[in-house]
Amino acid sequence: MKTKLGLLYGGKSAEHKVSMRTAMAVIKALDLTKFDIFPIYITEAGQWIKGSQLFAPVEDVNELAFSAVDADGGMLSPQLFQAEVNGELAPLDVIFPLLHGPNGEDGTVQGLLELLNIPYVGNGVLASSAGMDKVIMKNIFAQAGLAQVDYVWFIRSVWEQSKENAYAVVEEKLGYPCFVKPANLGSSVGISKCTNRAELEAAFSEAFQFDRKIIIEQGVIAREIEIAVLGNDEPQCSVAGEIIPKAAFYDYEAKYEDNSTGLIIPAKISEQEHAEMKELAIGAFKALDCSGLVRADFFLTQDGKWLINEVNTMPGFTPVSMFPLLWNETGVAYPQLIEKLVELAQERHAEKLRIRFTI
Hints:
12 helices; four-stranded mixed β-sheet; D-amino Acid Aminotransferase, Chain A, domain 1; alpha+beta; Rossmann fold; 359 residues
């Protein structure tokens, strides 16, 4: 029997467009002899819209999204996660949340799917929420003994009460250059590199547009190297890849729009360095209790020291994104990678069913 797969995409997030691109790529790659595909679109206003089953590949995900039938008035309901089989409604077998950023990658949707008891691809509630919040994530990494750059963080109300003090703390503890980021956002949205006070002030204002909490990280002279992790209790790592940004840093435009970033896959590192990186990546994966997939991002300093930057619990997932490219170089092609993630989702769900809920 074919797997009834629900694709959840769009979302109320600044990364809505990234999610749309991801959905289009996955739809084109899925084997329709193995999967019955049911699109579920979330508008930028947060409206949930269920589309009709796909019986052939589509060319435009925007067309697919807005031609979907709003049968439930845009309300969130169990019927969104059901399909008609032989005239009767049956639950979808697996949901693939192709969502990036808040309201999708941060544990909120994962919690919903847990309550509905539906298997879903990717990380669970805890790993998703901790991995989304860069401050919480770095605090956990510190507890796990993983080396990382120095950082400070602020919430908007504290900054608004004493802006000069906030800037002084950054200059005293980190200095320049430094990077200012929204704590709960990915795809390099709202991130600024600062080399002086004027840039720092502008960066705070920019980052606080996207989140109530921001993190400021110390700049470091290092290579940016990433690795992909796949699995549940026994995760495996891909080859490593290096980012060669032509801009000041690997920003949104460089990732998705102007193709101005060079990627070296596999990265030119020694076998020993690759082994060290894999050990650290799996350590980070387990520290957050991750499952399914993670992209772990590191700095490799000039003296050969690894510093973990962050992990992404729902990394970019188009065929030209780093995570699929790393696995393709490792020997797992894009369609097979999707199928493996679905299998891991079902494996994790079966493991959960072993838990007792009665005394």
